[in-house]
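Quick start: what a row looks like.
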Amino acid sequence: MLEPYTDGEKGQAPESGASQLLTETAETVLKRRYYLKDQDGNPVENWEALCERVGNAVAAGKRKPKNYGALRKRFYEMMYNLEFLPNSPCLMNAGTDLGQLSACFVLPVEDSMDGIFTAVRNGALVHKTGGGTGYAFSRLRAKNSSVQSTQGVASGPLSFAAVFDAATETIWGYCASIIPTSSTSSPPNRNRKSSTTSISAWPSPTCSWRRSRWAAPTSS
């Protein structure tokens, strides 16, 4: 893990420090979702330490630049003074072995059993690190279309949407049962997972899709 940026003593905030600007609600959210925790679930960070951790990692990038010191100082100060804040995965994962700093991923869903469940697997791995997913179902053939390999018929995009929905909920339940720790190899698992699906305006599957969304809305 990168050494923290400090302006003087370890953990010392800039003179223009704005930790006083953090409301009680903001501090509560930070403790619950963003600060690293020990095995008992107690925060081992404060606002200054979080800004140091994230600033160090973002400034370093894949290859630490020559102006690394100036970059991490500037990023730290922007965050600490609430001038700029990155997204949730960055706040949670920067400076840990996960290193997954992106919030949104668009994953293709190919028209084969292997392609469909590869997308389910990849989505689960994204959700594990705190990211959200978008799936494009337009490549899947319509319900009752012929499937030459099995001499059967396709069940359609809607049937597989339920599989993706269940996977999202399952990963949320798994992650919610884990206590985040300060270990750099431990997943943060601190924000609810989300996914969205899209489909082209085909007359038959689109009507079924809309009826299913109205009839059985889900939390994912």
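That is the whole record. Residues 157-176 form the longest helix (20 residues). The CA atoms of residues 35 and 50 lie 7 Å apart.
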